[in-house]
């Protein structure tokens, strides 16, 4: 087998050093499987940059997986431009906004074959990560009965495809009939996350933001908007009671360990040889069953 490399690209932040932590952690998880000769990370707002990362990769076959939630400005313009992908055209994905898979192009300055994948946030495996997030925050691997599940996104004012991704996963989870109610809610449009306690009839609601990293929106805006706290700096309980409803706020979905599986699945869909790494990552990151004692 010829050498193959994985490059995980994410936004990063100059302001919040924690925003890149999930990216590093997921890369470490995949690196430990040993299925790639190299596993690299690159960021828009941190080093190494998108523009430089391919020069640090020795392999000729490179799988690039964007750790972004939706198809949009970064996945369609910034990343391909910075990687200098020859003849890139968003039409190569043939996507309706949530169905980008992969395309293979040459990097102009390094000559490598780059298998450029769609974002993790629209992959079907992401549905499992949202559900796993609910299991993790409640500590119950069977959570569902008596619970509502709210999948939170920013809203269409920023990016029409962002709302599509939120609704896509909410619909897929609803089809499983595991939770009593499932709803897509938003920060900037109806139904709004501010009203989450009124939107559900269940006594318990798990709230999972479809964001890659915990930052300003997930740590400050959403907890305050939902009424978990008047001031995010003082913290809040999990669960917290709001208008008689127990709200289990899970924080950003991208911090869930199972995200490494979605990155692997994206690369595998593009032709990467991953062996049994997907099964191993799923086993390693699963929620432990509560003891009976």
Overview of the molecule:
With 293 residues, the chain is an alpha/beta fold. The chain has 2 domains: 4-122 and 256-285, Rossmann fold, CATH 3.40.50; 125-255, Rossmann fold, CATH 3.40.50. Helix content is 31%, strand content 19%. The chain has helices spanning 21-33, 50-53, 73-82, 125-138, 160-175, 196-199, 216-225, 259-269, 277-285, and strands at 4-10, 38-43, 61-66, 102-106, 113-117, 147-153, 181-186, 204-209, 240-242, 245-249. The strands form 2 sheets. It has a 5-stranded mixed beta sheet, sandwiched between helices. The chain has a 5-stranded mixed beta sheet with strand order 7-6-8-10-9, with helices on one face. Helix 1 packs across helix 8 (259-269), helix 4 crosses helix 5 and helix 8 (259-269) packs antiparallel against helix 9. The chain starts with a strand and ends in an 8-residue tail after the last helix. Keywords: Cobalamin biosynthesis, Cobalt, Lyase, Metal-binding. Pfam families: CbiX (PF01903).
Keywords:
alpha/beta; 2 domains; 31% helix; five-stranded mixed beta sheet; Rossmann fold; 293 residues; 10 strands
Order of helices and strands: EHEHEHEEHEHEHEHEEHH
- Strands side by side in the biggest sheet: 2-1-3-5-4
Instruction: Report the C-alpha radius of gyration, rounded.
Output: 19 Å
Distance between the termini: 49 Å
Q: What is the makeup of the main sheet? A: 5 strands, mixed
CATH class of the largest domain: Alpha Beta
The percent range for strand residues is 15-25%
> What's the β-strand tally?
10
Q: Please count the helical segments.
A: 9
* Number of structural domains: 2
Known CATH architecture of the largest domain = 3-Layer(aba) Sandwich
- Helical content stands at 25-40%
Question: What does the oligomeric state look like here?
Answer: single chain
- Give the mean pLDDT: 94
Structural class of the secondary elements? alpha/beta
Shape: globular
- Determine the CATH topology of the largest domain: Rossmann fold
Q: Are there runs of 5+ residues with pLDDT below 50, and where?
A: none
Keywords: Cobalamin biosynthesis, Cobalt, Lyase, Metal-binding
Protein name: Sirohydrochlorin cobaltochelatase
InterPro entries: CbiX-like, Sirohydro_Cobaltochel/CbiX
GO molecular function: lyase activity; metal ion binding
């Amino acid at each position: 087998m010829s050498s193959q490399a994985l490059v995980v690209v994410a936004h990063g932040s100059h302001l919040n050093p924690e925003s890149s932590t999930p990216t590093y952690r997921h890369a470490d998880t995949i690196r430990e499987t040993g299925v790639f000769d190299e596993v690299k990370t690159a960021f828009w707002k941190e080093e190494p940059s998108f523009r430089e990362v391919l020069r640090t990769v020795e392999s000729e076959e490179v799988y690039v997986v964007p750790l972004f939630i939706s198809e949009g400005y970064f996945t369609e313009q910034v990343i391909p431009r910075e990687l200098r992908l020859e003849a890139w055209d968003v039409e190569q994905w043939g996507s309706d906004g949530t169905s980008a898979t992969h395309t293979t192009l040459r990097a102009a300055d390094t000559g490598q074959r780059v298998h450029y994948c769609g974002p993790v946030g629209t992959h079907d495996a992401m549905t499992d990560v949202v559900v796993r997030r609910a299991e993790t925050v409640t500590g119950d691997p069977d959570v569902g009965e008596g619970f509502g599940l709210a999948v939170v996104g920013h809203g269409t004012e920023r990016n029409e495809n962002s709302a599509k991704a939120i609704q896509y996963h909410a619909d897929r989870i609803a089809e499983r009939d595991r939770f009593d109610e499932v709803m897509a809610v938003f920060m900037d449009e109806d139904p709004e996350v501010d009203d989450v306690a009124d939107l559900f009839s269940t006594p318990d609601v798990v709230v999972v933001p479809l964001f890659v990293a915990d930052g300003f929106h997930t740590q400050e805006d959403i907890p305050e908007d939902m009424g978990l706290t008047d001031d995010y700096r003082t913290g809040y309980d999990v669960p917290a009671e709001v208008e008689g409803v127990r709200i289990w706020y899970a924080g950003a979905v991208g911090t869930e360990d199972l995200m490494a599986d979605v990155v692997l699945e994206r690369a595998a869909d593009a032709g990467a040889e991953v062996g049994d790494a997907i099964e191993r990552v799923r086993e390693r990151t699963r929620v432990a069953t509560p003891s009976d004692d």
